Amino acid sequence: MKSTFRQGFIPPRLKSLTEALAVQCCLNEYVYSTSEEEDHLIALLTSKITESPEEINEYLAVVGCYKPLQLVNLDSAKISHDVLSGAESKDFVATHLTEPFKEKEIKRLMQPSEVINDIVSKSVQEMYEENPYPRYHYSDYTTSTLSKLASEVIRRESTKMRLSFNHELLSLQESPKILIAECGTGDQVIKTSRYKNAKVTAIDLSGRSIAYSIRKTEEYNMTNVSFKRLDILNAEILNETFDLKQCSGVLLHMEKPANGLSALVQQLQPGGYIKLGLYSTAARKTISRAQETIKRLEIESTAKGIRELRSKVMRGEINELIDLPRCVRDFSRCPNAVTCASMSKSIVLQQWN
Ligand SMILES: C[S@@+](CC[C@H](N)C(=O)[O-])C[C@H]1O[C@@H](n2cnc3c(N)ncnc32)[C@H](O)[C@@H]1O
Prior knowledge:
Blueprint lengths: L1 H6 L7 H13 L8 H16 L4 H9 L16 H4 L2 H23 L9 H12 L19 H8 L9 H4 L6 E5 L5 H5 L7 E6 L2 H13 L5 E5 L12 E7 L8 H10 L1 E10 L7 H12 L6 H12 L9 H4 L8 H7 L11
Parallel strand pairs: 1-2, 1-4, 2-3, 4-5
Helix pairs in contact: 2-4, 2-6, 3-4, 6-11
The structure holds S-adenosylmethionine.
């Protein structure tokens, strides 16, 4: 950044690299901590590109390494064709400008959310409205020729023998109805492409997450999915029954996870399946330790506080958290991972039948 600032442009040999970094930083929600000098220079560069639009082309990608350009008041008509040429440039402009714009448009056209009464759901909604999670480029999409009967997919994923299924899950002639009970940004929705002939309904509290999901499912040309902004606790509004439900990373956010589970069970067809993703106390020992350390060190629960903590941990400066990057994959990629984890519950599984 310093050399860009001194020279007045990004050195040509660093342009593609800077653009690729700006994409990576946007996807990892600006996980890296910054120095005061960097903060100062980036404020100067941001005012240059907003106040004198002719400077946009010189500094755009550098600013994108430090903040999402959708939040900068840009005159995007001034972005020149030179900036737009090349694979990295296209990816950069798409990630920072075109895609967020598309998501805003999708959200604007969305049906209004069903009323959310639960206090915890409201605060969880606020968090994911601000930070849809996870951000990603590519998902695990299965083409229809490789997709399989739902019963076969469930068998392969289960460690249990002699599973029994309802007709919809067993028959190629049927279209099993699948509920993704909180779709987040749609990764799980895209993965339902492995179930042959499925008809998918996806719900989530966060309109921004759903908009991200819709954009991604459109990218993969999926036309079998309908979306609804809805609290899982009010899932009866769907007035439908499902053969398969997937719910990962949501019950742990609830005041009473059992209420969420009971809402899920209510609309399950006899012989249907629920696939749950929970946080286990045993698997999260390292996170619990990190939460205690965060409290003890009085680390601020702000983006800056979390970034500084991450940077100390990555440099090995906090001895008791030396294992954290290895145990918590997201810790090295997304600053909200530990905050999000600290707002959630772990569940002790007494029995798994
Ligand atoms: C950690 S993300 C997981 C997203 C997705 N399941 C995945 O694994 O990629 C949690 C998501 O659950 C949603 N969520 C949390 N509580 C919910 C509730 N009561 N009803 C519906 N969605 C909820 C949030 O809005 C957020 O998008």
